[in-house]
Amino acid sequence: MAVMVRVKNDAPFAAQPDDDMVVCRCEEVTKGEIRKALHDGVCTFGEVKRFLRCGMGLCQGQTCQRLVLGIISRELGLPVSGLGHITGRMPVRPVIMEELGKSTEESKEA
Amino acid sequence: MKRYEMIVIGAGPAGLSAAIEAAQSGLEVVVFDENEWPGGQLFKQIHKFFGSREHQARTRGVKIGQNLLEAARGIGVKVVLGATVLGIYKNKEIAVRLEGEVRNCKADAIVIATGASENMMTFDGWTLPGVMGAGAAQTLMNLHGVRPGKKILMVGSGNVGLVVSFQLKQAGCDVVAVVDAAARIGGYGVHAAKLARTGVPFYTSHTVVKAVGAEKVEGAVIAEVGADFTPIPGTEMPLDIDTVCIAVGLSPMSQLADNAGAELVYDPAKGGYVAALTDEGETSVKGLFCAGDVAGIEEASSAMIQGKIAAAAAARDLGYITAADFETKAFGYKESLAKIRAGMFAPGNKGRTDIVQTDEGYPLSESLLARGFLSDAEAAAFPAAGIGGGGGGPRPVIECTQNIPCDPCQDVCPKGCILVGDNITALPQIAGEKACSGCALCVGACSGQAIFLVNETYEDGYGTVGLPYEFVPLPQKGDKGRALGRDGGELCGAEVVEVRAGAAMDKTPMVVMKVPVSEIARARFFRPESEGGI
User: Could you tell me the pTM of the whole model?
Assistant: First the structure.
């Protein structure tokens, strides 16, 4: 397991021309919002996710994980390998509650 | 709870191969796949595969998919479609969404073969409709019969970008440009060359900076990038396109392995986070295996072998085959895997830019790497690609100049005039000048469409060039048009004097065009009058 090192970017937040670029399409989170969060002390993918909902939408981070990791890595000067990843949890694909509610344990052959 | 001996997740090349292998050893196997169709990416792969006979070289992916599916069903493997695995719990218990409900079942062994997802990149306008993954464009075309757009910008020149660009051309789209931020084309030179000679321009050290349009893509701007891969101001170039396809790599879909408790490692060479695996494909969770792209991005041929190794290991662990049987099988599979993982584009060479010559010591074509086509001078320097003196009659000219694992040319030549040898990454050599009967099997068999049949003594002052032509409408004998060079530029007038489209060509017809003898070494494509080749 990679050892997590807490790093904060203490430099004052400086706007970049593409800060309004949407990075997480599902939850409509912009690059600027992610960068600001990193200046506020957030420093792993999991924290960005909890703070801004990146990766909590329909695609479950399939699209944005790599992009967000790149932003964190550049902003904090850390290698991607130490930034963590989205935790794989049931359900790894979207499922509607009704179907989840019909969950069967036995009898029917899957 | 229903218990299976093996559950395979994903009915792509790795998953189906694993299922077949396990079933052959006597295991009861079920394969779950969330899609409507089995086969993973195989049914989109309308091109011929590389490798050797044992890797099903020169067979199209779609056919390999059909073969695998038939073999799986024939041996009693249950392939369940529309079955989305939602999670893997302790003790290899699985939750699968099927027919409107979530069902749970267990397995003694699980093979995760969930493949990969396409990487995206951000640029101004990247969320506009009309920007899509190259794989998505391929799905639209090859599974749904829908053209993704009319005028395409392809971003990324790895094999996915190159293959999909060619298929877009085949579907009738105009591929306006292929750009890559790297200074070298990332995929096989032969894939680039078959695109370049149709007139598709390559822009290496370029990237897309903007997709333009209010509601959808109506244009794009590309720019040259510096050493730091950022655009150089002042180099912007507008392109008239309506679709941007992104082919900038794939990421393994490791969520289920993570969910099952397997240790993940970050490995950029494998495409990101992947489960840490033994050389049998087993994760840190006993009995839980990964095979195919989810184990690290490669291609379908190695995915199939990885699937077999994992399944054989599971069969051994469950007592269906002896350790000795496993060793025998695994030895063969690993040898086969080593063959296909060799050469300039082997996984171990990923990202390398310092390879400057072939294994045989020929300097690599810089033009091919930077612009997608061999320069005339470079082509002449390769033994099988040069025209040389040559007597009368047809003979193959093989423009295969990079070490890639492939030998169908050697395999199909009935006269034995093409030699690759046992090391299938070696460049092909022409064995004897007179042996060629002009059968054209090599032209149809070459997965890279890099073999041409030339004859400089067709008639006084004229020779012929036979070229692979996988486009519709197929030109007919007597059709007139223009001969194009390797760069897609028009060279001279040309007339089709013969078309070979028989079953032996396996849908890679050879179009033979008559050109002045002086152009034989340069003419590599035919543009019919009807398409502007006047």
Answer: 0.96
